[in-house]
Amino acid sequence: MPSLQAYTFRMPAGFAGDLQRAEIATIEPQLINSAAPPLSFGVAIKLVGGLVTPINASTDTSANVYGVNLRPYPIQGNGTDPLGTSTPPTSGVTDILRRGYVDVVLNGTTSAAKGGTVYVRVANVSSGKPLGGFEAASELVGTAGTNTGNGTIGAISAGAALKNGSYTVKFTAATAFNVFDPNGSAMAAGVTGTAYTDAQIGFTITAGGTAFVAGDSFTISQNTFALPSNWNFTGPADAYGITEIAVNI
After folding, report:
1. Is 129 part of a structural domain of the chain?
2. Is residue 94 part of a domain?
3. 109 in the same domain as 184
4. Is residue 134 part of a domain?
5. Are 121 and 133 in contact, with CB atoms under 8 Å apart?
6. Which strands make up the sheet holding 217-222, listed edge to edge?
7. Phi/psi class of residue 234: alpha, beta or left (left: φ > 0; alpha: ψ in -120 to 50)?
8. Whether residue 231 sits in one domain with residue 183
């Protein structure tokens, strides 16, 4: 007589850094930067001096991403690692996925969608938001310059045409400002107290008790940057936060 059992847990879709659909993958062995090695599998990496290095600077952009740090095959982990994790080597050779499909941890709070844009964390790390980790939404932050005025910037949002890099807001008068994209090109001008809306970015500057003066400024930086459209999520994450991305296809 068969045993009738109820299983209250399910297997995850995979582990971060697991290669999927191996028959179409392009994988390169590359030397690790032992002075700054990747700390986990399934994260974006760059090459510095020909060595594999984590994405780890706010100045990094999608142009710096060389590929994804893969688990080796057959999958072998450090014997002291807990289930579902594996510590990458800190020197020698590692496998980098340049083209294909790979399992990754979906970080951040936004759900992934099939065909959705893939973002990489580049600044302001926190729990669940590691450098080089993959997320499903942009995250922008505004920083005031050495201003006379004590107003604030808020309600910052990304438009469909958002460019990688930092935007600059520079006041020309107490209530008027100009906006410049990451390439330094002028965008539409704006005024305080009115929502600024553009195909690239949106925000609202609220005046404070001390008025702004010409030369006051804000910088809008990106904590995540978008990868090109030939990177995308193939579907939502499972209950363990694992999802698959298509890499450089």
Report:
1. no
2. yes
3. no
4. no
5. yes
6. 140-144, 217-222, 167-171, 176-180, 190-191
7. alpha
8. no
- 84 and 146 belong to one structural domain: no
Residue 76 pLDDT exceeds 60: no
Cβ 36 vs Cβ 52: under 8 Å: no
Question: What's the maximum distance between 2 C-alpha atoms anywhere in the chain?
Answer: 84
Q: Which amino acid is at 103?
A: D
The torsion angle over the Cα atoms of residues 227, 114, 25 and 15, rounded to 10 degrees, is 100
Total-model pTM? 0.82
Count of structural domains, the chain: 2
Average pLDDT over residues 182-188: 95
75 and 31 within one domain: yes
Helix, strand, coil proportions of the chain in percent (round to 5)? 0, 40, 60
Domain range for residue 216? 140-222
For residue 14, tell me if it sits in a domain.
no
Is 73:45 a contact under the CB 8 Å cutoff? no
- Strand-pairing partners, residue 186, are 180
Residues 6+ apart with CB under 8 A from 5: none
Neighbours of 141 (CB within 10 A): 13
Any idea which residue has 């340049």 for tokens?
A: 98
* 24 and 83 within one domain: yes
Helix (H, G, I), strand (E, B) or coil at 22: helix
Q: Per-residue pLDDT for 3 more than 70?
A: no
Give the pairing type, strands 93-107 and 26-31. antiparallel
Please say if the pLDDT value at position 89 is more than 80. Answer: yes
